[in-house]
Task: structure prediction
Amino acid sequence: MNSNKCNLREGYYTMTPIRWTIFGAICVVVLGALIFFSRDDSVDVTNLDASKAVSQTENEIGDIVYGNASSKVLLIEYGDFQCPGCAAAYPQLSQIKEMYKDQIGFVFRHFPLTTIHPNALAAATVAEAAGLQGKFWEMHDKLYENQTSWSDIDPSKREDVFTGYAKELSLDMDKFTEDLASSKVTNKVARDRAFGNKVGVSSTPTVFINDTKLTDEETSDLTGSNGEKVMDKLDAALKANNIEPPKRP
Result:
């Protein structure tokens, strides 16, 4: 067992003190024990390539790509807004996606660990509803930057908190409320989850470069160090596609 991870096994939850100290936990859950919503089973991603960004259609929300959407190199994170490890990786991933935005595309896909994070699914729908008004990344950032303010809040009170964030982003509140319950948003989160299952995601954050899954050691470098191992992998992928990596500070 990797002592740097949160583990949910046989119905109990354990956490190493050292990882809480640096908020670098990678929240792990046995896939068979995850509780999501039943429509996951009806989301068919068999014919979709998880290593490619999904295009938006009239009826479906596509992957929202930060940076160069046409790049041959895609950095994909499967994350949970309530996961401490994801919040710990967020600052470094933000710097990386900004540094590499001209060379790569960055995609965030939802993988809420609902058995241990009761507000994660709601947060995912909030982000996607904001995305329908062009504010996905703004809400994504706000949820991570304020995670400690809402992660443990009673579900009966979280609506006020998330609505407050939407108002801060100057969203159309009538549309936002309507979109929260829309099938577009529900299907998008379910599709992300189905993609995660398809490619063997069992923890958050899990990061891929195209179809290559980063190791636990490489992902942990986002929380315990400066992310250099991830940048090394990105540079190698860019060079393999004849793309010059950006200069690092």
Observations:
- Residues 1-39 have pLDDT under 50 and may be disordered.
- The CA atoms of residues 56 and 222 lie 30 Å apart.
- The beta strands are 5-9, 12-14, 26-28, 66-67, 74-79, 105-110, 203-204, 206-209, 212-213.
